[in-house]
Write a structure and sequence with these properties.
By secondary structure, the protein is an alpha+beta fold. 27% of the residues lie in helices and 26% in strands. It contains three helices and eight strands. The chain has helices spanning 2-40, 71-76, 159-163; strands spanning 53-56, 61-68, 88-98, 101-102, 111-116, 122-129, 137-138, 149-156. The strands form two sheets. It has a six-stranded mixed sheet. A two-stranded antiparallel ribbon has the order 4-7. Strand 1 (53-56) and strand 2 (61-68) form a beta hairpin. It is elongated, with a radius of gyration of 29 Å. The termini are far apart.
Length: 186
């Protein structure tokens, strides 16, 4: 009878070894599949960019924009317009980051002015700028350690809040240096 018990114990240990080997093989196969999937999937999907769109991937928003990228276009801005369509605006682009301020001379409608740094990250939002007001609107909040701005987005008054535009949200746009962009384009 003693021999039978030893045979059962040996069989049990042998079975345990086989089970452990099978489990290890399945685990290694699963790990290999996951590793393969991760290697072919992008870490973060990059937004598809277009010059006439300001894309804010974090809040799933695209704003149709007119570009103002020279002195004459920037000086004209949205002056003398009586309306501005929902989800549209004007994107002011400077040659390099700089301290900037805006005014509302000859601007007939209230505007939200969204100031962004060289990474495309919103640093300051000035809501509901008053039509025709000549008071300078600074591109940086008081105490901002880096007051230089590369781009400024103007949208209709009240739209920035409705859209979810606030400091810290990043824009994707092809005119940003993609190596510095917080949200690079695809």
């Amino acid at each position: 009878m003693r021999r039978g018990k030893k045979a059962i114990i040996r069989t049990s240990k042998r079975s345990e070894r086989v089970i452990v080997m099978v489990l290890r093989a399945k685990l290694l196969t699963t790990f290999a599949c996951v590793t393969t999937l991760l290697s072919v999937m992008p870490a973060v999907a990059q937004p598809v960019c277009s010059p006439d769109l300001a894309v804010f991937p974090e809040i799933d928003l695209s704003v149709n924009v007119e570009i103002a990228d020279n002195n004459a276009e920037r000086a004209q801005g949205l002056m003398n317009r009586e309306s501005l369509a929902e989800d549209s605006g004007m994107l002011f682009i400077f040659e390099q980051p700089r301290e900037t301020s805006f005014w509302m001379k000859n601007t007939l409608i209230p505007l939200d002015i969204v100031f962004m740094d060289e990474t495309g990250t919103i640093r300051h939002v000035h809501p509901n700028a008053i039509p025709m007001d000549l008071t300078p609107i600074p591109g940086a909040a008081p105490g901002d350690p880096d007051p230089e701005r590369l781009m400024v987005l103007e949208v209709a008054g009240g739209e920035a809040q409705r859209m979810g535009l606030k400091p810290g949200i990043a824009m994707a746009h092809p005119r940003l240096d993609q190596s510095q962009a917080a949200q690079p384009c695809q």
